Amino acid sequence: MNSKKTRRILVSGEYVLCGPGERIISQGAVAVEDGRIKEVGVYEDIRQKYKDFSELRRPSGLVMPGLINAHTHAPMVLFRGMADDLPLKTWLEDHIFPAEARLNQDLIALGTELACAEMIRSGTTGFIDMYLFEETIARVTDRVGMRAWLGEGIFDFPSPSFPSGQDALRETERLSKAWEGNPRITITVDPHTPYTCNQALLEDARELASSLDLHLVIHLAETRWEIEEITRIHGCSPVEYLDSLGLLSPRLLAVHCVWLSERDMDILSERGVSIAHCPESNLKLGSGIAPVARLLKKNVRVALGTDGAASNNDLDMFGEMDTAAKLPKGLLQNPSVVSAAQVLSMATVDAALAMGRTDLGRLSPGYQADIIILDLDRPTLRPCYNCISQVVYAAKGGDVTDVMVGGDMLMIDGKLVTIDEKRLLAEVKAWRKA
Ligand SMILES: [Zn+2]
Q1: Separation of CA 93 and ligand 1 centre (Å)
Q2: How far is the CA of 24 from the centre of ligand 1 (A)?
Q3: CA-to-CA distance for 337 and 331, rounded, in angstroms?
Q4: 102-139 per-position pLDDT tens digit
Q5: Alpha helices per DSSP H over 237-374
Q6: Is the pTM of this model over 0.85?
């Protein structure tokens, strides 16, 4: 990685928002040493204490934890806008799968770099990814310096990267060993869905995750069709089916969970499963709206994701937070049902906890220095009464000026540090032309 190394640095701004439900410090600063947060406080005090630290000063900046995208398929940015306004099954089978059949490692690398550029620009410091050729995604992400949890998609049928589900499982095991100990890249076990993996494959995935102590990610209860199909074949809901196979545990991140019965929600809660809520993708594909308010009431951990850019069509977590905060209000005709702070938590702390990380998503001593800065001197962000309100309801990804991951700068004053953006965009344009 060739990011700008900053062993000891003070990051300061007009406000420091330490996290959802945490302190907001006016004229605040964060002291960072060796990639972790050492202290957070009022600028003058911190400056006095850490005299020899270098400085990143943003007088109109809002300093806050980096966002974590809890579900995406990063290289799918290459399919952004390729096929819109179609139902999931048609979209997937007639458009996405054929396009994916033509993917190779070079295209995956190109798509991953483009996705990383978009994510860094919009204040995302970490992402949970399920896709193909995941080793290439890991290599590019590592070089760029983002944090990521990556899983090779596991299917019953041949995927563009592997001839069988068993091969994908073996690759997962190999990747987990190859990337073990990497401070930013973590491997997950990713059976694609309950209907694209047979029972034995799902059980093997569960066993692999358990034996290597890895997290599992699966798409679950996304569409009404999936409920009907699983009920027809197995005589129960997809949640009940996975429960009967022993897949539901705090180790599992279940993506979407749009179609849930009360009993399904109780089971998810009892088993400690985390949910990756992807409201814009669910809306765009016409899949429905996940019962997030009910899930939160039942103490299910909900994280927030964009899904792939082909069904969103961007990876901007600020837009996603805005949608996630407004959607349940309209649906239930109750503006208090999900708060801005709860949604910020979904995009930071809860996504980290879903991956078992208790040192991410907050600006607090000992936490990883994954920090972003927004410029509040924008017409859409003044006046500023409430930082969390501004972040969730008014800010856009483009308001982010600086991004740090593990103490390394990935964007400084709007310029990407680890990606040659001009070269990257030229390559993407040339590929599109070809
Ligand atoms: Zn997905």
Answers
A1: 14
A2: 34
A3: 10
A4: 999 999 999 999 999 999 999 999 999 999 999 999 99
A5: 238-244, 262-271, 279-284, 292-297, 317-332, 340-346, 349-354
A6: yes
Q: Could you say which DSSP state residue 40 is in?
A: E
Which helix (H) or strand (E) segment holds residue 82: the answer is: none
Q: Please write the tens of the pLDDT for every residue from 308-363.
A: 999 999 999 999 999 999 999 999 999 999 999 999 999 999 999 999 999 999 99
Decide if 375 contacts 52 (C-beta within 8 A).
no
Q: What is the Cα–Cα distance from 27 to 25, expressed in whole angstroms?
A: 6
Q: Mind listing the domains of the chain with CATH numbers?
A: 8-66+370-416 (2.30.40.10), 70-354 (3.20.20.140)
Residue 348, CB-side half-sphere exposure with 13 Å CA sphere: 32
Tell whether the model's pLDDT for residue 9 goes beyond 60.
yes
Non-local CB neighbours of 372 within 8 Å, separated by 6+ positions: 63, 64, 65, 66, 67, 123, 125, 400, 402, 403, 404
pLDDT at residue 403 in the model: 98
Distance CA 340, CA 321 (A): 8
Where do the H-state alpha helices sit in 311-381? Answer: 317-332, 340-346, 349-354
Residue 41 alpha carbon to ligand 1 centre in Å: 39
Instruction: Output the CA 196–ligand 1 centroid distance in Å.
Output: 13
Rounded Cα distance, 410 and 4, in Å: 7
The pLDDT confidence band at residue 247, using thresholds 50, 70 and 90, is very high
Give the H or E element holding residue 6: none
